[in-house]
Amino acid sequence: MSDTMVEKQSFARYKTNNTIEEGDLVVTYLNRETMGMIRVRKGEYFNCKFGSYKHADMIGLEYGTKLGSNTGRGFLYLLHPTPELWTLVLPHRTQILYIADISFVMNFLNLKPGMSMIESGTGSGSFSHSIARTLAPTGHLYTFEYHQERVNAAKKEFEEHGLSDMVTLQCRDVCKDGFDMENKVDAIFLDLPAPWEAVASAKKAFKHNKIGKICTFSPCIEQISRTVTALSEQGFVDIQMFECLIRFNEIRVIPMWTIEEAMEKQRAVEKKRKRDKPQAASKKNGKRQERRTQEDTEEESSKDKVAKLESLVDDSNDSSAAATPMSTSGSEAEPSSATSTPVVAPEATMPSATTATTTTTAEAEPRERIDPKNVVVTRLPAEQRGHTSYLMFATFTPAFQQPSLREKKAAEAQS
């Protein structure tokens, strides 16, 4: 494609061919916390945790393409730059407005294409980009900044982003020197340490034949109080103040039980609890019985050994039974006493524990599974972003600025 056919990139609109060309700006999106902006040039590389990406590989691709790294470990998205993305990746020179405040302010100022607006101060240019896109293609933004280095940086960015033809940037302290404009704009936004000092000059800048809107952005309630007084003295009406906070909601899926299902579930839990209680008791009793049985077995084993030894002694004495009649009577008495000792079988006590376990197992019944309907709900997390600033709005009404009929007659009488 020849240089004469290359479409100039702008933050105010998308490219018609939606194609990345050499020299274009691209937002590299890895995730919501990892984004950046690069200018595509042949021979250069973009490096990140996933690997290396050649700029030459990006040329010719469409915006929104998912591009893999040279290592194959990850990928990124190539996005067309917009004011919303610029707010997330811009270099911070001052505190900036984020999308929650930006959208809220633009809605209450009734901004639309073709309007003219004043912004003071420019800062890092976050809000300036959104305003310029909203007023394009025929509207105009007059933005003021008292710090010369910030003015130079913002002017360069407006030129690189294709907004210089709809943005006029001046280095000026409007609190002391005013805007030096009259009957020219439809809306005014003041992000100043002392906005009440610029209210009188802002009133002159409004178009005298139209209703205008003004907004101030202040972090302290004391600033709001003094600004309200200044606006009232200058004849502004419908003065309102808002505090815009960001709240992120967590999405959760929970079961939705009917009353009958909940009662059935509770009955099943109680039934399981009662069923588990005798099982636990039987296990405990079974272990205790096993220990007793083991002790009895050891005792009987020792008795058997004693009985065997005694029988061996009796056999050895049988040979002398005729010569010693008294030994015969003794031998007859001793075996009888030995054999008359009761022997308890080790298995005698086991059937009771086995029987109890078998009975309990037979009583156990499988629990019926209840599958409730799932419901998607949102929940606020424990931590929230705190206060940023107060937004105050007021209305400029030409009818209130013109002298009343009584004032006109008094002026004519004096003349």
Based on the model shown, name its key terms:
Vcp-like ATPase, Chain A, domain 2; Rossmann fold; 4-stranded antiparallel beta sheet; 13 helices
Could you please describe the fold and organization of this structure?
Residues 318-342 have a biased composition (Polar residues). InterPro entries: SAM-dependent_MTases_sf (IPR029063), TRM61_C (IPR049470), tRNA_MeTrfase_Gcd14 (IPR014816). Keywords: Methyltransferase, Nucleus, S-adenosyl-L-methionine, Transferase, tRNA processing. Belongs to the class I-like SAM-binding methyltransferase superfamily. TRM61 family. This is tRNA (adenine(58)-N(1))-methyltransferase catalytic subunit TRM61. By secondary structure, the chain is an alpha/beta fold. It has 3 domains: 3-81, Roll (Vcp-like ATPase, Chain A, domain 2); 86-246 and 389-414, 3-Layer(aba) Sandwich (Rossmann fold); 255-295 and 352-362 and 372-384, no CATH class. The chain is 41% helix and 20% strand. It has helices at residues 55-58, 83-89, 99-108, 126-135, 148-160, 174-177, 199-205, 221-233, 259-318, 325-339, 350-363, 398-401, 405-414, and strands at 25-31, 34-39, 45-48, 51-54, 65-68, 75-79, 116-120, 140-145, 167-171, 187-190, 212-218, 237-243, 250-256, 373-379, 390-396. The strands form 4 sheets. It has a 7-stranded mixed β-sheet, with helices on both faces. A 4-stranded antiparallel β-sheet has the order 2-1-6-5, with helices on one face. A hairpin with a 2-residue loop joins strand 1 and strand 2. Helix 2 runs antiparallel to helix 4, helix 9 packs antiparallel against helix 10 (325-339) and helix 9 packs antiparallel against helix 11 (350-363). The radius of gyration is 46 Å and the shape is elongated. Mean pLDDT is 82; it is low at 319-364.
